Amino acid sequence: MTLSVALETRKAGMRDIPNILALINSYAAKGVMLPRTEFEMSENIRDFSVAYEGQTLVGCGALHFYTPTSAEVRSLAVLPEMKQHGVGRALVEALEQEARNNDLESIFAFTYVPQFFGKLGFAEVERGEQPLKAWKDCLRCPKFQNCDEIAVLKNLRTPAVPPRRTRNDFANSLIQLEPAKF
Q1: Is the pLDDT of residue 166 over 90?
Q2: Residue 50 in contact with residue 16, Cβ under 8 Å?
Q3: Residue at 1 is within a domain
Q4: Has residue 2 been placed in a domain?
Q5: With the CA atoms of 49, 110, 83 and 45 taken in that order, what torsion angle do they form, in degrees rounded to the nearest 10?
Q6: What is the mean pLDDT of residues 18-46?
Q7: pTM of the model
Q8: Is residue 182 part of a domain?
Q9: Core-most of 22, 27, 68, 124, by most CB within 10 Å?
């Protein structure tokens, strides 16, 4: 699972757009990803990270924020000949670190390969548990009425659990209230 040449992962820039489009749209032609346009890529380039082996783009992925606490890992693509070489893992780990740096609670994805995400700590969840905004791309998908992607989610931190309140706590808080002044 190691690469023969050092793998470089970094945030994408405008110069990466032609390579990212070629990779994503090669998968779109097979019906496993949505096609992207140059305009869409230009609008969303800040979401993307890329992986290069030498001068060759070997993978890409995006972290798209939906709420102040969650984001979607999307447009994850790896050159077919580079699968099983750690490229996808390196990209997801970089996107996860970006999510952690932004203090997110969770990241999610819609995928055909839940076992890949499972190895990275994601769990399968119901699609309906994801933010509705995440479905906006689904509206233009030819599989919208018969979606076969699986939703996966990774919690990045344990949400704070409020302290358990007792009946005495409630009674004590009422005693401390000032009487209303009319």
Answers
A1: no
A2: yes
A3: no
A4: no
A5: -20
A6: 94
A7: 0.77
A8: no
A9: 27
